[in-house]
Amino acid sequence: MRLQVERFLTRLRAAKNCSPHTLRAYRADLEAFRTKFPGLAAADIERCHVRRHLAELQSGALARASVLRKASALRSFVSFLRREGALARDPFLGVPLPKRTRSLPKFLTEAEMSGVLAVPVSAGPGVERDRALIELLYSSGLRRAEISTLNVGDVDLLSGTVRVFGKGSKERIVPVGENALRCIRAYLRSRGGPNDGEPLFANLGGARLSQDGVMFLVRRWIRKSSLLKKVTPHVFRHSFATHLLNHGCDIRVVQEMLGHASLRTTQIYTHVSLDRLRDVYKGAHPRSR
Questions:
Q1: What's the alpha-carbon Rg for the chain, to the nearest Å?
Q2: pTM score, whole prediction
Q3: Domains within the chain, CATH numbers bracketed
Q4: Could you list the active site residues?
Q5: Is the pLDDT of residue 213 over 90?
């Protein structure tokens, strides 16, 4: 089965242009299935193997989303085997899958975000970088993988935009607020004006800041604030989308800025914009006063 897994991952990399993160996750998921049934050939995968695998996943402490992702990885692999003629029957036929649940995204209120952005930081190495990073995360709603791969030339300081390569290497242009632009300019001046091809955010050694580095800097920044919440880079992204919708931004514009392929993914943010809903209700309903 190992050879078929490698061929499947190669096909994903070439045909669907999947991100390295997705490929690593699929590899780990399929390797876990393969080692659970040592000696099982790809052509011999049956419904009993799928049922046992899913039952064991659901009996553990995994989140529902993780179980569904692992099931999706195996199902995609099975579909690949059937298209290649390496598997005659669909082992997923008649196997019930857990229902997907969509939890509301965690976000900060505008007051909380203002407090985070106003954290006083004493002078020291990396201060300009950290503030520029925090401002850009909230200003443009970028994923940590996207912000890690940015180069200096991807930010247009004149037009106030940033060019982003999101999931599947899809390119999009996202506006950048004036506060974030001002912090980025200060940070680039502190680096002596790097070339366009250099990383926008670098560690203290000069190398590109990794995704883990982005997470570390965000957590360190939050610890310096008085906020008693767990905040990740994705919380900045959720806050970005929620605050835009609260202020009347069109949901399709938010979809474009977030880089969502489907509007359904963006629609979850409409459920957390309760302040906006209350304001509209009070202003529109004749019996609301």
A1: 23
A2: 0.73
A3: 2-83 (1.10.150), 110-280 (1.10.443.10)
A4: 143, 167, 234, 237, 260, 269
A5: yes
